[in-house]
Write a structure and sequence with these properties.
This protein is an alpha+beta fold. It has helices at 15-24, 35-50, 73-76, 91-97, 100-110, 248-254; strands at 26-29, 59-62, 80-84, 114-122, 132-135, 149-155, 166-168, 180-181, 190-191, 202-204, 211-214, 220-222, 233-240, 286-287. Bound molecules: 2-oxoglutaric acid (AKG).
Length: 295
C-alpha cells in the first residue's frame, strides 16, 4: 500500500506550554519558521547589509569600533550588531513577523489583537559580536503594564553556547521589575548584580527556525561570539492592543533603586539628570494582520 506523506504539522501551543510560559517566563517552539523562509530571511539580511536590497526604513547598527561607511559592502554583515525596522524593506522578514502560525501561538498567550512594537535582526558576527548584558526587555519599554508585551527570538543559524545563544533565568520574571545600571550605550544597560542569579541560567540552544517566546521581565543574556560560527537571529516584540505607553516618571515607578532613582534603560547614563528623550519613545503601534505561512 502506498503511504501518503503528510505535511509537517504546524506547531501550536498546548495548555501545558502556555502554563510553562506563565511559570518559567519562556517557552520554546521548535520548527516555527519553515526552512525556505529561514533561507529567505538570511538572504534578506545579507542583501540589506551589502546594499543589494535598499535599506529604506531599516536602521543598521555596527559593532562598537566599526564604521559601516569604511567597510566594503561584502564585509559589512560580518561587523553588524543589529538591524531594526526592516519589515517594510523585505517581504521575507515581514512574512516571519506576521506569520499566521506565530500569531496563532501568540493568541494562546496574549489573547487576540496585538501590535508590532519592535523588529530586529541580531547578528553577533563570529569573533566580533559582543555580549548583550543581563537585562529585562521591559526596562527598555515605557509601558504601564509590561505583562502586555511578549518577545519572540527566532534562530536563523544553530544557536549554541559557543556562538552566543540566549541564556535565561527561569522564573525570574516573577520577581517583577528589578533595578538596572544605566550605561552610556543603552544596549549595555544591565541588571544590578545583587538582583541576578546567574548560577541558575539555562542555555537555550536552538535550531534554525526554532523560536524562544519570552516574558518581558525574564532575565536574559547573550555571550560574545568567540567562535567561527554565525549566530543570526530575528527578534520581535508585540504588545496587546490598548497597551498604554507612558513617560519617564511612570517608568521610574517600575524601574527604580532603593532611593527612588530611575533604574531602567530608556535613557543613556549621561542624559539621565536632564530627564532626556527616551531611547524608545512610543512603540511602533503597527497592528498585526497575519499573512499566510511560507511552507
Ligand atoms: O540576540 C542577542 O544577542 C540579544 C538579544 C536581546 O536580548 C535583546 O536585544 O534584547
Amino acid at each position: 500500500m502506498d503511504t501518503i506523506a503528510t505535511p509537517a504539522a504546524a506547531p501550536t501551543l498546548g495548555a501545558d506550554q502556555v502554563a510553562a510560559y506563565r511559570r518559567d517566563g519562556y517557552v520554546v517552539v521548535a520548527g516555527l519558521v519553515a526552512p525556505r523562509l529561514v533561507a529567505a530571511a538570511i538572504e534578506a539580511i545579507s542583501g540589506l547589509a551589502s546594499g543589494r536590497i535598499p535599506a529604506r526604513a531599516t536602521e543598521i547598527a555596527f559593532e562598537p569600533g566599526f564604521d559601516g561607511a569604511k567597510l566594503r559592502p561584502e564585509d559589512r554583515e560580518a561587523h553588524i550588531r543589529k538591524f531594526s525596522r526592516f519589515i517594510e524593506d523585505s517581504e521575507a522578514l515581514r512574512a516571519v513577523a506576521l506569520s499566521r502560525r506565530l500569531h496563532r501561538i501568540l493568541d494562546r498567550i496574549m489573547g487576540e489583537g496585538r501590535e508590532l512594537l519592535q523588529d530586529m535582526a541580531l547578528i553577533k558576527p563570529p569573533r566580533v559580536g559582543g555580549a548583550k548584558p543581563w537585562h529585562q526587555d521591559a526596562a527598555y519599554f515605557r509601558v504601564r503594564d509590561p505583562g502586555l508585551v511578549v518577545g519572540v527570538w527566532i534562530a536563523l543559524d544553530p544557536a549554541r553556547r559557543e556562538n552566543g545563544c540566549m541564556e535565561v533565568i527561569p522564573r525570574s520574571h516573577a520577581e517583577g521589575p528589578v533595578p538596572h545600571i544605566p550605561a552610556e550605550d543603552v544596549n549595555l544597560c544591565t541588571i544590578r548584580p545583587d538582583r541576578l542569579r546567574p548560577a541558575e541560567r539555562v542555555h537555550v540552544e536552538l535550531e534554525p527556525g526554532d523560536a524562544l517566546i519570552f516574558h518581558p521581565l525574564l532575565h536574559h543574556y547573550t555571550a560574545p561570539n568567540n567562535s567561527d560560527l554565525r549566530r543570526r537571529a530575528l527578534q520581535f516584540h508585540f504588545n496587546q492592543t490598548g497597551t498604554v505607553w507612558t513617560d519617564l516618571e511612570t517608568h521610574r515607578g517600575l524601574f527604580h533603586d532603593e532611593h527612588g532613582a530611575y533604574a531602567g534603560c530608556t535613557v543613556p547614563k549621561s542624559k539621565l539628570a536632564a530627564g532626556a528623550a527616551p531611547y524608545w519613545p512610543d512603540g511602533r503601534k503597527m497592528p498585526v494582520v497575519p499573512v499566510d505561512d511560507w511552507t
